[in-house]
TrEMBL record:
The entry's keywords: Transferase
Organism in which the protein naturally occurs: Cryobacterium arcticum
Gene3D superfamilies the UniProt entry points to: 3.40.630.30
InterPro entries: Acyl_CoA_acyltransferase, GNAT_dom
Protein name (database record): GNAT family N-acetyltransferase
Amino acid sequence: MPELRLEDLSARNIVAANSLSLKPGQEQFIAPVSYSVAASVINPNTAWQRVVLLDGEVAGFIHGNFDPDSPQEEFRACIWRINVDAEAQGMGVGKFAADALAEEARHRGFERITVIWEPGEDGPEAFFHRIGFVDIGETQFGEVIGALTL
């Protein structure tokens, strides 16, 4: 059984996090337009960034946001970005990261977390549905908004 653990994003592991590989076709789904637009107003004090270590090696990255005062409900407690190295996909890394963010959200008093993705054949939709997210709406750019009740 592989050992999974979280570590704060730091100078020590950021190069490995930035070097995570993707499977062919996944690159187009990395950052939905909505996140790019909202990024200009994200408060660094609300960011929650962690790497996932698989047997001691960086295999994933998750960036969450916790801002109960956000005017957009989908950005109050959300997965901002989740990347799992191509070689580690299917090994529980993504679910482990999402579960950790959900636990942090519960600890902070949130009742659900959200995520936004672009629909498409090689996109993350099946993953998010598999771990319990349900579609609750769509952004102005046609991206899916999913939510997981905690």
